[in-house]
Known about the structure:
By secondary structure, the protein is α+β, with helices and mostly antiparallel strands.
Amino acid sequence: MDDRSLIRTAVEELLRFDVNRGPGMPRYLTEDVELGGEVIPKGSRTLSVIDAANRDERMFPDPDELDLSRSPNRHLSFGAGSHYCLGQALARTELQVTLEILLERLPGLALAIPSAELVRREGLLTDGFEQVPVVW
């Protein structure tokens, strides 16, 4: 990344684009909710699939494209409302600082294999990669 001014928007886009691939966040409805012309009654249990929300074409033009300059970026990777992650500010700061340091200290850092060959390690709350081989 040549333009360091994109670090903040890049972090937000990476959070939107590559959110947890888990089955969804369980929620218990405390009131009736209308969704798509149907009423889901109070007391129902639902799954909020954040990945689907973060790829909603009504909110994100070209949602399947990674755009490091995307702004505004109202992703839901840290939840919303009463379920908004308390640690989101720290997580964003850690990601921004890490990216800045990697770009500064290891400017030639690159994947040693094609990104399509990276193997995901999946879990219920987080995921990542089994290995990320790099060259420098």
